[in-house]
Amino acid sequence: MIIITGASKGIGKYLIESYLDRGEESIIGTYLSTVPQDHVDKFERVDVCDSSQVAEFIEKISGTASKVTLINCAGISYSAYTHKSDPDEWKKVVETNLFGSYHFIRALLPLMREQKFGRVINFSSVVAVKPTPGISAYSASKAALWGMSKSLAIENASLNVTVNNINLGYSELGMISSVPEEYRKKITAQIPAGYLCEPQDILSTVEYLRNTKYITGSSIDLSGGLV
Ligand SMILES: NC(=O)c1ccc[n+]([C@@H]2O[C@H](COP(=O)([O-])OP(=O)(O)OC[C@H]3O[C@@H](n4cnc5c(N)ncnc54)[C@H](OP(=O)(O)O)[C@@H]3O)[C@@H](O)[C@H]2O)c1
User: DSSP string covering 107-173, please?
Assistant: First the structure.
């Protein structure tokens, strides 16, 4: 089974649609506020920040879930220079991007360990280490995924449960849609490859991590050379 959090928009939506197009039946996506219009039976509303909602959802699907790949796509950003930032907004970013992934991983690990199979793929970002002003909460939350994954990797490696991150640079999909065209051009100009990440490269990287049992605890740059 493939579980994709944040599958109602952007990258998560692209991934679930791609898998459905390929005929994947054992798949479920989650959303929070954007109610999916297509394949509604393949979606559940789950707030990743709420550990009880996550646990309830996993309990509900655990009877039919086997060979689970968890793709943690749900994420938010918040732009503000830190000295002007709102602590509640800052905290929400970490709660969504870090705790949200943790809640899903924690709830699924017993099943993955028991089945001796699990693939966890988190969406991190190059800004985990690329100094970028105005997004300290986002950068902190994405960097924390790296550390968390290292620890999780060695806790679970002997049970064929792998945990990895994709450090995305800038994609054609998702959050970029809220970036003004002028700034978008500036971002693109910084990317050595000269263009934003194309959706199919995200899918092929996810598939690579799903299909490779010996990579665990890694954070793979998918950034067109942007570091
Ligand atoms: N796009 C990029 O260039 C880029 C670059 C680097 C990293 N990333 C990472 O890749 C992931 C996907 O990004 P994206 O650009 O596709 O983002 P997006 O288009 O903004 O979509 C975010 C998704 O997260 C869901 N979400 C947010 N808060 C949630 C919560 N509390 N509970 C459940 N779902 C929640 C949203 O659901 P609702 O709409 O239903 O609320 C939505 O489906 C994120 O983790 C992002 O940080 C993206």
Answer: HHHHHHHHHT-EEEEEEEEGGGTS--TTBHHHHHHHHHHHHHHHHHHHHHGGGTEEEEEEEE--BSS
